[in-house]
Amino acid sequence: MTEQSTWLSQQIDQLATQQEKFTDRAFWLALKKVVAEQDRRSDQLGGEVDGRTWRPDRW
Amino acid sequence: MKTLVLVSHPQLADSTSQQFLKASLPSEGVTWEHLEDQDEFDVAQEQQQLRQADRIVLQFPLYWYAAPAGLKQWEDTVLTRTFVYGDHRYPLADKELGIVVTTGMPEQAFQRGGAEGLTLDAALAPIAALAHRAKMVWLPTFPIYQFGYLEEPEKLQLVTDYQRYLTQKQPDSLANRQDWFAQRLTGMVDRLPAEQQVTGKLIASVFDQNREHLDQLTDTLAMIKEQEDD
Fold it and tell me: Does any CB of chain B come closer than 8 Å to the CB of residue A58?
């Protein structure tokens, strides 16, 4: 997890805690999960781009 | 998208899981109906509701590996042969059919060798066959195992998972999940009290940036793959 995602995750947690309605709290916490998934997918795709660009046979 | 939720439960008021799901319903786009509330089904009206829906969700507790009798009664009364496939007209064709099923046994019971020895897919085979006959699209089932044992974080997760099951585009991919949240995010931020608006907007903007960044990466990757094929 990058520093930014840790910070964002804390912000979402804090916002969620402040919600009085159970369903509102649920929304923000679920959003946190999607943001974490975005991070993970971004790492994986970034890695794949690097891996595919690294082609010693084309040097 | 219009979703029709048909709930079958003989004692709805006593069911904590059904009351929880009712309280979790999305604020718009969903029509909710309790089948056992009706002494007699208005067949024409029930069929009209089905015609108007894009996604139909049957929701019930699992009683002896099947839905409660109320759902079967509704099926036998409302889903007449003429309506479902008579005259080679298929008014339900291409509509999605989803199942929200609650069980008293844990997930691991529903497999061969498990305590029930039967998968939920196998138990729901008659409804799946009906969907197939009506040329409907069968959605992956949404099971809720042992609701009574869920802790608060799991219940919070259930609220949004359930809402997405009712209203999110299928399949449940990251792209479709992102779209679902994006459609609701601005409204959710607007509803925040003034002092929380800044944080809400900041979160929304990072979410959007992440989404754009992922789109760019996907495009780049597609381009690289295309060149590799050449």
Answer: no
